[in-house]
Structure formats: structure tokens, C-alpha cells
UniProtKB/TrEMBL annotation:
Pfam families: Response_reg. SUPFAM superfamilies: CheY-like. Keywords: DNA-binding, Phosphoprotein, Transcription, Transcription regulation, Two-component regulatory system. It comes from Croceicoccus naphthovorans. GO terms for cellular component: cytosol; protein-DNA complex. GO terms for molecular function: phosphorelay response regulator activity; transcription cis-regulatory region binding. GO terms for biological process: regulation of DNA-templated transcription. Coiled coil: none annotated. This is Uncharacterized protein.
Length: 136
């Protein structure tokens, strides 16, 4: 089981993401903006962060830049979830350090598979070669 932090101001999407990831065995904490995301890191470090690009208080890009500039949290993999589809937006997020970029709308199954792949890669790099969770 991995601990996933989801930062998105869309309650319906956050709940859909939370439900899908809990169903496949993850612990999920949701917050509504980038500032709350950074605050949540002070109490517990997640295995991955799902980050909406457009949020109130602090945008996803601002949050990503703050995360990646902090040596304590820079290695946390981040998946950007956004309706922004332009090549410019995708490249800016990749340059800032996202591990993956998903455009909305997306299927919960696609998200779960991407999370599993991301977590499996991180476990492999860390030397922990356990089999990933079943998605069924």
C-alpha cells in the first residue's frame, strides 16, 4: 500500500480519484489547493502526488516548483492532472519535473495504471523489487 496525496479543487474528480486508488489498495489524502498540498507534506511524505494545474491560492505549477526546489521533497514523483493540453503547458510541466502529465478527462483505470507504473519504477530504483499491487 502506498500513500498518495491528491491536490485538486474539483471535489467530484478528487473523490473519483480517491475512490479508484483506495479500491486498488492505496491510502489517499485529498486537499483543495497547492498551499494545502505543501502543508500536508509537513506531517507525512507521500509516495506520489497527483496535482491539478489550475487551483486557487497556489497553482499546480507554483506548487510543483516549490516541491522540486525543496531537497526533502524533490524526489516525490508528481503526476500533473489538467485540462490544459497545449504542447507549451506539457513541456513546461515536464521541465519543472513532473513524472507524468494527464489531461482531463481521463479514465480512473488509466490513472491507476499510471500510478502503479510510477510506484513500481520508484521501488525498482530504490532496490525494492516487490510485485506491484493488483489492479483488479
Amino acid at each position: 500500500m502506498s500513500y498518495i496525496l491528491v491536490a485538486d479543487d474539483d471535489e467530484i474528480l478528487s473523490e473519483m480519484v480517491r475512490h479508484r486508488l483506495v479500491t486498488v489498495g492505496h491510502e489517499v489524502h485529498t486537499v483543495e489547493d497547492g498551499e494545502q498540498c505543501l502543508e500536508a507534506l509537513q506531517t507525512r511524505t507521500p509516495d506520489a502526488i497527483l496535482l491539478d494545474a489550475m487551483m486557487p491560492v497556489r497553482s499546480g505549477m507554483e506548487t510543483l516548483i516549490a516541491l522540486k526546489s525543496d531537497p526533502v521533497h524533490a524526489r516525490i514523483p508528481v503526476i500533473m492532472m489538467t485540462s490544459r493540453r497545449s504542447q507549451e503547458d506539457v513541456l513546461a510541466a515536464l521541465r519543472a519535473g513532473v513524472a507524468d502529465y494527464m489531461t482531463k478527462p481521463f479514465s480512473p483505470e488509466d490513472l491507476a495504471l499510471r500510478i502503479e507504473g510510477l510506484l513500481a519504477r520508484n521501488r525498482f530504483v530504490a532496490g525494492d523489487v516487490r510485485m506491484p499491487h493488483s489492479l483488479h
